[in-house]
Automatic annotation (TrEMBL):
Organism of this sequence: Mycoplana dimorpha
PROSITE patterns found in the cross-reference section: NAD_G3PDH
Binding locations of sn-glycerol 3-phosphate: 109, 137, 192, 245, 255-257
Catalytically driven reaction(s): sn-glycerol 3-phosphate + NADP(+) = dihydroxyacetone phosphate + NADPH + H(+); sn-glycerol 3-phosphate + NAD(+) = dihydroxyacetone phosphate + NADH + H(+)
Pathway: Membrane lipid metabolism; glycerophospholipid metabolism
Lineage summary: Bacteria, Pseudomonadati, Pseudomonadota, Alphaproteobacteria, Hyphomicrobiales
TM helices/strands, residue ranges: none
Listed name of the protein: Glycerol-3-phosphate dehydrogenase [NAD(P)+]
GO BP terms, alphabetized: carbohydrate metabolic process; glycerol-3-phosphate biosynthetic process; glycerol-3-phosphate catabolic process; glycerophospholipid metabolic process; phospholipid biosynthetic process
Length: 330
């Protein structure tokens, strides 16, 4: 990919806007944010702001914004920054505008709830002849957009493609590590959200920091088993997309998944939670169902899914987790 890459970011939410501004700031590529709301485009063009999702942050002056899907037609890299459950719909809507050979990068952290399928499978089905990649790892949109140092992973079908994408998208404050493990990288992002909810439950219920540390370690073991069962590399989840992101979102109150879990831990249910995207609330049920079907041991994920569904009381969940048969850690 050359210096003239045209990067289009689809989805003008918090993450899409943050990625668009940090890539635009490198000055190496033309960057366009494809939004759905006229007021978003007007605000970015007039004042370099997207206050609804990144309050108080000034975006790159070179960032372009538009509502016109035709902008995709000369794109070499397209970032899909809408939520997991919207990725298929977006692919269908935009397929006619996406050039053959373009890289389409999944920036969501989840799995498709309706089918239980990986997002790479979903996009490859909807977008043949495009190269589907995955961007994941620890990085809050506001941190990225402010230019705070952030490191994430980009996984593609070959190391050459991943390295090309890493070079196009990285800059002085945003560093991408190339990977060929698209399965491990996307599942690390999807499953850490479930475990961040679990960390929130622990915090909200006042179970202590020791419980949180145990949960992070044993949660990582669950992630490794799930990734390996899907043909990914279990070691991937010990890196940025997995442990790195779990440490971030399992401990920082910037995380929506953590805050949702805190509400669950405090009041025992999710009543009153409105509006904010909580990807782990979708992923918990999907992962738990697949784990049961494929005989993958995921006791923490199962408990989170059951608590969210109102099938299990917190006290019972803790009792069940603590009274599991004593086994070796590894
Ligand atoms: N926020 C963060 O810090 C991070 C988020 N992520 C991941 O990024 C993904 C998006 O999260 P985030 O940006 O925070 O969410 P937001 O709720 O802030 O934004 C979601 C955006 O997606 C847009 N959208 C929804 N459906 C479509 C569609 N079919 N076509 C085009 N755009 C669509 C929405 O547009 P509209 O406003 O018009 O409804 C909205 O602007 C999630 O999977 C999340 O896990 C990953 C790392 C960090
Ligand atoms: O994934 C994230 C940062 O890496 C964002 O986490 P939340 O979706 O929990 O806010």
């Amino acid at each position: 990919m050359s210096e003239q890459s045209h990067v289009v970011v689809v989805g003008a939410g918090a993450f899409g806007t943050a990625l668009a501004t940090v890539v635009a700031e490198t000055g190496e590529s033309r960057v366009t944010l494809l939004a759905r709301r006229a007021e978003t485009v007007a605000a970015i063009v007039a004042s370099c702001r997207n206050e609804a999702v990144l309050p108080g942050i000034t975006l790159s002056a070179s960032l372009e914004a538009t509502l016109d899907r035709a902008v995709l037609e000369d794109a070499s890299v397209v970032l899909f920054a809408m939520p997991s459950q919207a990725q298929r719909e977006a692919a269908r809507e935009l397929a006619g505008h996406l050039p053959d050979g373009a890289a389409v990068v999944i920036c969501a952290k989840g799995m498709e709830k309706a089918s239980g399928r990986l997002l790479t499978d979903v996009l490859e089905e909807e977008l043949p002849r495009r190269h589907v990649a995955v961007l994941s790892g620890p990085g809050f949109a506001a941190d990225i957009a402010r230019g705070l140092p952030t490191a994430m992973v980009i996984a593609a079908s070959t190391l050459e493609r991943a390295a090309d994408l890493a070079h196009v998208l990285s800059g002085p404050t945003f560093r991408l590590y190339p990977s060929v493990d698209r399965i491990g990288v996307q599942l690390g992002g999807a499953l850490k959200n479930v475990l961040a909810i679990a960390c929130g439950i622990v915090e909200g219920a006042g179970l202590g920091d020791s419980a949180r540390a145990a949960l992070i370690s044993r949660g990582l073991a669950e992630m490794s088993r799930f990734v390996a069962a899907h043909g990914g590399d279990a070691a991937t989840v010990t890196g940025l997309s997995g442990l790195g992101d779990l440490v971030l979102t399992g401990t920082s109150h910037q995380s929506r998944n953590l805050r949702f879990g805190i509400a669950l831990g405090r009041q025992g249910n999710a009543e009153g939670w409105a509006g904010e995207l909580v990807e782990g609330a979708f992923a918990a049920g999907v992962a738990s169902k697949i784990a049961a079907e494929r005989n993958i041991s995921m006791p923490i994920t199962d408990a989170v899914a059951a608590i969210i569904d109102g099938r299990l009381a917190l006290a019972t969940a803790i009792g069940q987790l603590m009274s599991r048969p004593i086994t070796q850690e590894f």
